[in-house]
Write a structure and sequence with these properties.
32% of the residues lie in helices and 23% in strands. It is an alpha/beta fold and 98 residues long. It has one domain (24-97).
């Protein structure tokens, strides 16, 4: 009987430990600024609302949303991004700003 109790405790603790690494926070993203706020987040499952997102000079110049040449730099770990139904339109003239 005592062996069963110990085995059950070990099994329970192992399950709890593994669950900590398997659950990612789920978020819905509705804008480019929201998307940018999740670039460095760990352990998230992000779903972007379907639609067209325009990247033009109003958000890429210095001091705005994407002032650097690396617009989409995902640095977080263990995260998943779902862009199903999403279109990013990039005005190629902004590339001259970089």
């Amino acid at each position: 009987m005592k062996k069963n109790t110990i085995l059950n405790k070990i099994l329970f603790l192992t399950t709890v430990f593994c669950m900590q690494f398997s659950f990612a926070q789920e978020v819905t993203i509705k804008s480019l600024s929201e998307l940018k706020s999740y670039f460095s987040q760990d352990n998230i499952t992000a779903v972007m609302t379907p639609g067209t997102y325009v990247i033009n000079s109003t958000i890429t110049v210095k001091g705005n949303l994407f002032p650097d040449p690396i617009m989409f730099e995902f640095t977080g770990s263990n995260s998943t991004y779902d862009f199903t139904g999403v279109t990013f339109e990039l005005n190629t003239e902004i590339l001259n700003d970089y």
